[in-house]
TrEMBL record:
It comes from Stentor coeruleus. One of its GO terms (cellular component) is membrane. It is a peripheral membrane protein. Keywords: Hydrolase, Magnesium, Manganese, Membrane, Metal-binding, Protein phosphatase. This is protein-serine/threonine phosphatase. It comes from the Eukaryota. Its main location: membrane. Residues 278-546 form the PPM-type phosphatase domain.
Length: 552
């Protein structure tokens, strides 16, 4: 059976509340500890998931873990069907507690409560409330900061409606200067607005920066260049970590936390990664001298508070690994920034995503040329990116890597291979004065769209190699759609799309329903492609299961 090729442009305007939520499953993968690599699907019944060391018959634990420093019922995960939300609840009073990792710009993690703990690596920090001050004390503080220069009766100033203040231009300048010199204020002045005609200043505590760089207020003994900023903005404290900073917030007893795809939390000696889908990945150098592939699994871009977007990609480099590694570091973060900065982010989600993808591809390509002038002419990479949000999959493709959906056993190709001898690609290349011989542009390059390869982009003939991706969309059928496989051309040299789907489907279905492991299956297929001499190329693949169990 030949695969069906899907090629759908994005629809008309769709606001964020018009995007379907899709299947509401949650997978917990053991990220660290003795069970690393194992996983479980969170229960959605009324009692939810109960994780601990207590005997299941006595404590009704649903995930029983021994020798990991857990209390009998350490934490629970409850499903709110009405909101399609999973709620993590700290159920222990032990000091080990339940810790949630804070990531940069993560919506639900930044605010922290007074009298609470956070952790950077293995260092614990405690946030406590400071003293309160009376109005008389505040008046004295203002006097000590020279505000009495402007007001003869400080108490009167405190009770005065500051909108009624009248100052001449010189006093306005002096007041602005004095406010600028304030370095700290007591707790009840951490957010204080002064307004007098066109003057409007907000004054609060200077943020505290904790890290190991020279400009940090608190130095910690670690070699990595990460830091965290602790800031008070009335009436709350906020934590903002740098990229890759291992900072965790401790939940209080019975405190609730809305668990989203991409969240990481620790209980005892165990660390869990929450995701909407179970994902496996594997790569092999094959018979090549160097590994030029790269891949990214990002379960949530955190661009929408109530709409997680998973980002899954494979980059197939050529001429070297520099371009694929550059994409691995920059493409998803660039896309995230562009989505967040779009004025139509919430009012027109799908077209925002499409325009952001186009801009991200162009921007990252230009950045690669700028930062790598010595190699950018001959080094490049194909790219296949799948975004999964709500009830749909968006695919963006450059080159000959491929994304294939399994729908009730049939392969549906979500991308089109960009080969120079493809009729559409051939016509474009010829129209720019290029040639195609033996399936290669000017007898050299075997793909017609790619990152890098600037020898085919900056010449007098224009861009023989395009940076514009094909973007497609398909709605997920919750009954028939079983998994998505993303791979470089080495994978599809070894297997046709339909053969690949059939083999994966058969191997997943042979496992017990709660133990169908995509990582094990894709590892087997990649290794068989190499060791059975089906391909000599690098092979990299991702396997994303769209349902918890497949049966034939």
């Amino acid at each position: 059976m030949e695969p069906h090729v899907i090629h759908i442009r994005c629809p008309e305007i769709e606001a964020i509340d018009e995007i379907g939520v899709g299947r509401a499953e949650m997978v917990l993968r053991f990220n660290e500890g003795m069970y690393k690599g194992r996983f479980l699907y969170v229960k959605t019944d009324i009692e939810g998931e109960r994780i601990g060391s207590g005997n299941p018959e006595e404590f009704n634990t649903t995930t029983y873990i021994e020798n990991a420093g857990l209390s009998e019922i350490h934490c629970m995960i409850l499903f709110n069907e009405e909101l399609s939300e999973y709620i993590l609840v700290n159920a222990t009073t032990q000091n080990s507690g339940t810790w949630v990792k804070i990531t940069p710009n993560q919506f639900s993690c930044k605010k922290v409560l007074p009298n609470s703990f956070f952790k950077i690596a293995d260092l614990d920090f405690f946030i406590s409330s400071g003293p309160s001050y009376s109005l008389e004390q505040v008046a004295k503080i203002l006097v000590s900061e020279k505000f009495h220069r402007f007001f003869t009766n400080t108490k009167e100033f405190i009770s005065l409606n500051t909108d009624e203040l009248e100052l001449n231009s010189h006093d306005k300048y002096e007041l602005k200067e004095e406010i600028g010199r304030l370095k700290s204020l007591p707790e009840n002045l951490r957010s204080l607005v002064f307004s007098a005609q066109d003057i409007n200043f907000e004054v609060h505590y200077k943020p505290i920066r904790i890290g190991n760089t020279g400009n940090c207020d608190v130095t910690i003994p670690y070699s990595s260049d990460y830091f965290i900023t602790l800031q008070y903005i009335h009436p709350n404290y906020y934590l903002e970590p740098s990229d890759n900073c291992p900072v965790y917030q401790k939940l209080k007893h019975e405190e609730e936390f809305v668990l989203c795809p991409g969240n990481i939390f620790k209980v005892g000696k165990i660390e869990f990664l929450a995701s909407r889908f179970n994902v496996g990945r594997w790569s092999h150098i094959g018979k090549r001298q160097a590994m030029e592939d790269a891949d990214v699994i990002c379960h949530n871009l955190f661009t929408y508070e109530d709409l997680p977007i998973g980002f899954y990609s494979v980059y197939d480099g050529h001429g070297g690994s520099q371009c694929s590694q550059f994409l691995k570091k920059t493409l998803h973060s660039t896309l995230r920034r562009l989505i967040l900065s779009s004025p139509s982010r919430c009012s027109d989600v799908m077209n925002t995503l499409r325009s952001s993808i186009l801009l991200a591809f162009a921007e990252v390509d230009a950045k690669f040329e700028e930062e790598n002038p010595d190699i950018c002419t001959s080094v490049g990479s194909a790219a296949i990116v799948c975004l999964i949000l709500g009830d749909r999959i968006i695919t963006a493709n450059l080159g000959d890597s491929r994304a294939v959906l399994c729908r009730n056993g049939q392969a549906i190709e979500l991308s089109i291979d960009h080969k120079p001898d493809n009729s559409k690609e051939l016509n474009r290349i010829l129209s720019h004065g290029g040639s195609v011989m033996l399936g290669r542009i000017d007898s050299k390059l075997a793909v017609s769209r790619a990152f890098g390869d600037f020898q085919f982009k900056n010449g007098s003939r224009g861009s023989l190699v395009s940076i514009e991706p094909d973007i497609t969309q398909i709605f997920i059928n919750p009954v028939e759609d079983e998994f998505l496989v993303i791979g470089c051309d080495g994978l599809f040299e070894a297997y046709s799309s339909q053969d690949l789907v059939e083999i994966i489907r058969e191997r997943l279905a042979s496992m017990p329903e709660t133990e169908q492991d995509p990582n094990r299956v894709i590892r087997e297929l990649v290794n068989e492609a190499v060791f059975e001499n089906r391909t000599s190329d690098n092979v990299t693949a991702l396997l994303i299961t769209l349902s918890s169990a497949i049966s034939l």
